[in-house]
Amino acid sequence: MRKFVMMALLALVSANVALAGDAACEAKAAEKKLAGAAKASFLKKCEKDSKGMAAQSSCEGKAAEKKLAGAAKSSFMKKCVKDAGAK
């Protein structure tokens, strides 16, 4: 039961980070007064980066739950982030 609660909490945090990232990206683009292709390019990169951070955060929690350290943690993190679709 404890693992289920931990996984649900991690999923919720990851989703909130991704949603907040989209709004933050829009705000940053407005602050920089970007428009057209420059804005589209900026938003694409910014959103990709924020999704990568969400995946990283989720994988960190999973590694901690499994009590991984050292090379095992590094290997797990690399595979986890890759599987999450964020490179």
Notes on the structure:
With 87 residues, the protein is mostly helical. It has one domain. 85% of the residues lie in helices and 0% in strands. The chain has 3 helices and no strands. It has helices at 2-31, 36-65, 70-83. Helix 1 runs antiparallel to helix 2 and helix 2 packs across helix 3. 8% of the residues are buried. Residues 1-20 form the signal peptide. This is PsiF repeat protein. It comes from Pseudogulbenkiania ferrooxidans 2002. Keywords: Signal.
Instruction: State the share of residues found in helices, binned by percent.
Output: over 70%
End-to-end span in angstroms?
31 Å
Enumerate how many helices there are, as a single number. 3
Q: What is the strand content?
A: under 5%
- By helix and strand content, what is the structural category? mainly alpha
What general form does the structure show?
Answer: elongated
Q: What are the defining features of this structure?
A:
87 residues, mainly alpha, signal, PsiF repeat protein
List the helices and strands and how they pair.
Layout: H1 2-31, H2 36-65, H3 70-83
Short description:
It contains 3 helices and no strands.
